[in-house]
Amino acid sequence: MNKQQNIRRIAGIAVLSALTIILTIVSNYIIIAGVSINLSLVPIVLAAIIYGPYAGFFVGLINGGFVMLSAQAFFAISPVGTVIVCLLKTSIAGLVSGYIYRLIVRFNEIVSTFVASLIVPVVNTGLFIIGSLIFFKGSFGSLISIFISLNFIIEFAINLLLAPAIIRIIKAVKK
After folding, report:
1. What is the DSSP annotation of 37-104?
2. Distance CA 62, CA 144 (A)
3. What is the CATH number of domain 3-174?
4. By mean pLDDT, which of 92-96, 126-130, 137-141 is the weakest?
């Protein structure tokens, strides 16, 4: 990788990191049926697809750090659990999305983009539910799982609807 490509890569990851921060903050104000919707998964997908799994991990880690800032209720129950869950759920989702994309893209770019886009909310929500049941035991963990199910459906639908736009962005960036 030459110096100019490296600078573009760093700048692209920085822009996606900034976008995930902005969307994380904005998402706190977009509430559907009592659940705030995490729009910031899209930059994680873009980072994972365009720049690779580690970029998806990094942007997911940035996202998790900012999600953690608004998780006061969770800190009251388990500070360590809150840090682990918030930082790992989106970063691992970005990492897995990037690897899945790389695995499937050889066969079909459109299918690989859709699968990578949909894997982020699946992994994110799955790890959040597992973390909630481990660290936030009792009725609070069960209540979280119910609300998260609705959140998952909405995030999944958003990523599904935005996947064609993601495909266009990827093609534009690759040119």
Report:
1. --TTHHHHHHHHHHH-HHHHHHHHHHHHHHHHHT-HHHHHH-HHHHHHHHHHHHHHHHHHHHHHHHHH
2. 23
3. 1.10.1760.20
4. 137-141
Work out the burial of residue 108: count CB atoms within 10 Å of its CB; fewer than 13 is exposed, 13-18 middle, 19 or more buried.
Answer: exposed
The pLDDT value given to residue 140: 58
Enter the pTM of the model: 0.86
Looking at residue 3, its pLDDT comes to 85
- Please tell me whether residue 167 adopts helix, strand or coil conformation: helix
Return all residues near 140 (Cβ < 8 A) that are at least 6 apart. 77, 132
Segments making up each domain of the chain, as ranges: 3-174
| Cα 49 from Cα 44, distance rounded (Å) | 9
In the block, which residue shows the tokens 């129950």? 77
Identify residue 119 by its one-letter amino acid code.
Answer: I
Which H or E run contains 31? Answer: strand 31-32
